[in-house]
Amino acid sequence: xxxxxHGHIHFGENKVQEAIEKWTDIKNKNEKIKLHMVGKxxxxxxxxxxxxxxxxxxxxSIKLAKKISEEQKKLNKDIKVFIQINIxxxxxxSGIEISKAGEFFESCKKLQLDVIGTMCLPPxxxxxxxxxxxxxxxxxxxxxKEISMGMSNDYLNAIKFKSTFVRIxxxxxxxxx
Length: 177
Description:
By secondary structure, the chain is of the alpha/beta class. It has a single domain, classed as Alanine racemase (TIM Barrel), CATH 3.20.20.10. The protein has helices at 2-5, 16-29, 46-52, 62-75, 101-110, 128-142, 155-160, 169-173, and strands at residues 10-13, 34-37, 55-59, 80-85, 114-120, 146-151, 165-167. A seven-stranded parallel β-sheet has the order 1-2-3-4-5-6-7.
């Protein structure tokens, strides 16, 4: 609440259920608040997410994109979305393969999704600048203005590569308990 009272309006959450409990009343009282879903979104949570969130940073499959499209039409709400790119080609991480980014972007446009940018989580054991540079290139190829990349440990590098949304919750709020 002190951060909201200080004028900050953009906040991210990793989990839909936690966000519902934490943000529903706050958003009802303050329409300026913009809530970002930055974690993995399961299709069975989309109807709840679309009601509450203004941005979804983790669109990583056509199934999820279709579900978001359907729900936002039902609610007559325009959600801003980021396509999650599996920039390190890591099998344990979600995201679209780099080679399929353009095709997936076109599919999202056909679903009338408001794709404003791309998002990535680079490998933890490598130099993030390599991956941020690749993301900037992908964003430029898709002619997108926003990039969601960089977290508490690498956000300064992300900003060098034109990241417009950084996720620095741990630096501000501390480790999750």
